[in-house]
Automatic annotation (TrEMBL):
Organism: Gracilimonas sediminicola
Keywords, sorted A to Z: Chromosome partition, DNA integration, DNA recombination, DNA-binding
Pfam families registered for this protein in UniProt: Phage_integrase (PF00589)
Protein name: Tyrosine-type recombinase/integrase
SUPFAM superfamilies: DNA breaking-rejoining enzymes
Residue ranges annotated for the Core-binding (CB) domain, each copy included: 78-157
UniProt GO molecular function: DNA binding
Domain named Tyr recombinase: residues: 181-388
Record InterPro entries: CB, DNA_brk_join_enz, Integrase-like_cat_sf, Integrase_catalytic, Integrase_recombinase_N, Tyrosine_recombinase_XerCD
GO BP: chromosome segregation; DNA integration; DNA recombination
The organism's place on the tree of life at top rank: Bacteria
Length: 391
C-alpha cells in the first residue's frame, strides 16, 4: 500500500506492508506539486500491484522507475495523432478552456499539413512554419500557435519521442509583441466608484415594495475585493463545475488569534500552494460579508446565493463577470476592465510597493517567476519614485 505525504516543501511516497512484518519505507518524489505527486503515487501503486516493482528492495528509486516506465510507454506512440492524445492526457489538470485552445491549434496544424498518420519524427520545421507564418494572420495569432505547438513539441522531446527542437530558430522570426494589459486593469479609485454604485443601487432597491433581502448580492463586493487585493484567479474565488479546484471554501480562510489573516490556496492552475496575507481593505469587505453569510464549515463554499432558485449554491464565475461588467457600465468605468485585469493590478501593485518578484510570484501562484517578471514593465511609477529619491 502506498500513500502520499509532505515533508518540508517536497512530497514523498510512503510504502507500507503488513505482510513483511509491518515494514515501512519512505522515498522522495522530487516534486513540490501535489497533483504531480499524486499521479506518481497512483502509477507506483499500479506497478507494485502488477509485481513490476519491489519498493522494499535495496536501492529502490521511484523517480527512476517512473522514468523507465514512461519511456517504455512512448514506444507505442507511432503517429502524430497518438502523440497529441498522449499530450492531452498529461494536461488533464488544466481547465477545459485551456485544453480546448490546445485542441484548436493542434487540430489545425495536423489538418493543414496532413500529418494525422505520420510518425512524429517525420514532422519538420516547415510544418510548423506553414501555420505560424501563413499570410493574413495577426502577430498575436502567430504567437498563439507558437506557444501551443512548442508546448506539445517540448512534451515529445521530454518523452524521447522526437530529438530535434525547431522552436529556438522559429522564435527568431516571430514578430515582437507585447500585450497591453493596462486597459484591463481597474484602479483603486475606480474600484471605489464601482462599490459606491453597488451601494447606491442597493439603497434604491430597499425602497421598492418588491424588495427581497434574500436576493441581495452580498457576495459581490468581497469577491471583487479578493480579485483586486488578493490577486486570485476568477475561479479560485468563484465556482465552475468543470474545475475541481474552483470556489473558495471555509478551509481556505486562515485565522490567527480569531482574526482573519490569510487566504490559503491549494495547487490550482499554477500548481503551487500559497498563502496570501489579507490586507485591511480586503479584510473589511470579507468580515462584513461573513457576518451576513453566518457560520461556514471547512467544506462549505464561502460565496453562495442566499435566495431564489439557486439558494445555497456557490456563486459561479460567469455570474460575477456579468455583474462586474454591468456595474462598470452603470458607473461609467471603461468596459475594457476585466476580472483578470484586477489580478494584473494586484501583482503590479505588489511589485510597485517593494515586494521582490519571487514574493509576488508566490502570492500570485505563478508556475514560474518568469511569468511574474513580465509585470515589471508596468511598474514605471516605482522607477520614477526611485529616480526622484536620487535628487
Amino acid at each position: 500500500m502506498a500513500f502520499l505525504i509532505k515533508r518540508g516543501k517536497y512530497y514523498y511516497v510512503n510504502f507500507y506492508s503488513e505482510d513483511l512484518g509491518k515494514k515501512n519505507v519512505r522515498k522522495s518524489l522530487g516534486t513540490r506539486h501535489k497533483d504531480v505527486a499524486q499521479k506518481m503515487v497512483t502509477e507506483l501503486e499500479k506497478l507494485e500491484s502488477l509485481g513490476k516493482i519491489n519498493p522494499f528492495s535495496k536501492g529502490f528509486n521511484p523517480k527512476k522507475v517512473l522514468q523507465r516506465n514512461t519511456s517504455n510507454e512512448t514506444t507505442d506512440c507511432n503517429t502524430v495523432s497518438e502523440s497529441i492524445e498522449l499530450f492531452y492526457k498529461s494536461k488533464n489538470h488544466l481547465s477545459p478552456a485551456t485544453i480546448g485552445a490546445y485542441q484548436r491549434a493542434l487540430d489545425h496544424f495536423v489538418e493543414l499539413n496532413e500529418l494525422s498518420d505520420v510518425h512524429p519524427t517525420n514532422v519538420l520545421s516547415y510544418h510548423f512554419e506553414n501555420v505560424i507564418f501563413k499570410k493574413s494572420i495577426t502577430s498575436a495569432t502567430r504567437h498563439y500557435y507558437f506557444r501551443h505547438f512548442r508546448s506539445w513539441w517540448k512534451f515529445l522531446l521530454k518523452k524521447n519521442i522526437v530529438e530535434k527542437d525547431y522552436f529556438p530558430e522559429i522564435k527568431k522570426d516571430l514578430p515582437r509583441i507585447r500585450e497591453n494589459t493596462r486597459p484591463k486593469m481597474i484602479s483603486e479609485e475606480e474600484l471605489g466608484i464601482l462599490f459606491k454604485k453597488f451601494d447606491d443601487e442597493l439603497a434604491r432597491k430597499k425602497d421598492l415594495p418588491e424588495f427581497d433581502p434574500n436576493l441581495v448580492q452580498h457576495w459581490f463586493k468581497p469577491i471583487v475585493a479578493l480579485y483586486f487585493f488578493g490577486g486570485l484567479r476568477k475561479h479560485e474565488a468563484a465556482y465552475d463545475p468543470e474545475l475541481s479546484y474552483s470556489g473558495l471554501k471555509g478551509e481556505n480562510l486562515i485565522y490567527e488569534s480569531e482574526e482573519l489573516s490569510y487566504i490559503s490556496l491549494p495547487p490550482t492552475k499554477g500548481r503551487k500552494e500559497r498563502l496570501i496575507p489579507i490586507i485591511n481593505e480586503l479584510k473589511k469587505e470579507l468580515e462584513v460579508y461573513l457576518k451576513v453569510r453566518a457560520k461556514i464549515s471547512p467544506s462549505d463554499y464561502v460565496f453562495i446565493y442566499t435566495g431564489g432558485n439557486t439558494k445555497g449554491q456557490p456563486v459561479r464565475g460567469m455570474r460575477v463577470y456579468r455583474e462586474f461588467k454591468r456595474y462598470c457600465k452603470e458607473a461609467g468605468i471603461p468596459t475594457s476592465r476585466t476580472l483578470h485585469g484586477m489580478r494584473h493590478q494586484a501583482v503590479t501593485t505588489w511589485i510597485e510597493k517593494g515586494f521582490h518578484t519571487a514574493e509576488a510570484s508566490y502570492m500570485a501562484g505563478h508556475s514560474s517567476q518568469k511569468v511574474t517578471e513580465k509585470y515589471t514593465h508596468l511598474t514605471v511609477k516605482r522607477l520614477k519614485d526611485k529616480m526622484k529619491a536620487l535628487s
